[in-house]
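Recap quiz, item 2
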Amino acid sequence: MDITPWQKVKLARMPVRPTGLDYITKLFDGFLELHGDRFFGEDRAIVGGLAFFEEIPVTVIAQQKGRNTKENIARNFSMPHPEGYRKALRLMKQAEKFKRPVICFIDTPGAYCGIGAEERGQGEAIASNLAGMMMLKTPVISIVISEGGSGGALALGVSDRVYMLEHAIYSILSPEGFASILYKDAAKAEQAAKDMKLTAQDLYKFGIIDGIIPEPPGGAHNDYEFVMDRVRKVLKENLEELIRKPVDRLLEERYEKFRRL
Amino acid sequence: MEKPVVPQGIMTKCPRCGKPIYTKLLLKNLKTCECGYYFKVSAYERLAMIIDNNDFKEFDPQLFTRDPLDFPGYGDKLVKTQLQTGLVDGLVTGLGRIEGEPVMVGIMDSSFFMGSMGTAIGEKLTRMFERAIKEHLPVIIFTASGGARMQEGIFSLMQMAKVSAAAARHSEEGLLYITVLTDPTTGGVTASFAMLGDVILAEPGALIGFAGPRVIEQTIGQKLPEGFQRAEFLLEHGFVDRIVERHELKSTLGALLKLHRQHDLHKAEAMELAGNEPG
Ligand SMILES: [Zn+2]
């Protein structure tokens, strides 16, 4: 049975789905978390640090949703502030220095909209990540694991390879927000989800993502090991290929990847 | 340069102080009222205010969106807006001089789908940066945007990455990029090329932010303080280099361009001067 775009939106938001930290602990060895943006503070909506992937040292960065209200409050529902994006970019530049590949797990409704976020330059922080990732002299792979919301997701998504899980979504705005702007009625979110073309299948067809990672029947939450195996395989194959590329070619191909869109 | 001009009445009323102003005089005053109110400026009006003799070589004037999502009703709305505004999309790019200095200029027009960025704008900006790299020229972009072009969905989002990439390459070449943030500059434009300028200027009172004020008020459930997200607020928080009055914009841009004149050119001129000196 086909799953509708709106069902995918609901599926992607289920708290039982594997979160960023689930991928980090299951796919990587010896994860060592590094905190802070060195300017203002620590943003727990984004987790970042060092680990081994199949014996290769890597930098891994993930937007982190909570499983319950308490966790979600601590993680701000995975809606990063500017310091989260600045921390991510700091860790990416560190990875560049030490010639480590970067792996990003994207899962956010969007960058946080609030007074502090504006005061501290949410726009500037995201913009700097877009430009910074494009010029990063080390391989970067991003996987949209559940929800890829707007510029807040793209700020970890300017990568050599972008994958999505089978039932993940990636869009310019939430369907609710989209419906309230274009249809002047947030209740038309279901229609919006369809018109927006936000499924992994749509984005693959458009050539915006490089591949779709299959989920077990019913969704990723039904069999974590199934998903982890598939993600591990994708990471391994792509890293092996990307690590061998001369940096100039890597950057040229990364530029072209977005240039043609 | 002949361009379609939206017909206006003889008199225009200032929305702030209510004073009627001769429309012709309004243009002469760079569309500002005595009370300090700044009227919105169309892309071609801005060109006339900024570019020497309005002598401008426009790039890709016919480039339009291919409606990548095949979004219901978008095609018709585009045609209607094109007829209404005389614009093909919400951005004019090209080459001209400011106080004698050659420069590539992009000007967004907020009358076209609220200046929202879709694939046409993203492509034109990217091409301009790529041309500027080839011709070794500085770039100035006037932003005026409500954010992403919703009807172009994920493609609109990807323009943020595409234009930022081109700006980053231009920067790597050691070339100057100036942004002038005008009212309003929000959403995906703020979160990409607007904030990547080597020098970021803003018009007084311009609304500049990532999230729109209404979205923030809904999110936090309270009213925003007076002046929040205005140009002065951004200056205070360190995100804008200078706030520039409209009548000083051209001279400020000219001064910045002169300060960044390419060194080899500079040296050649200096040597020529030295060579002309007797003895
Ligand atoms: Zn007035």
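Residues 91 and 108 of chain B are 4 Å apart (CA to CA).
Residues 153-172 of chain B form the longest helix (20 residues).
End of item.
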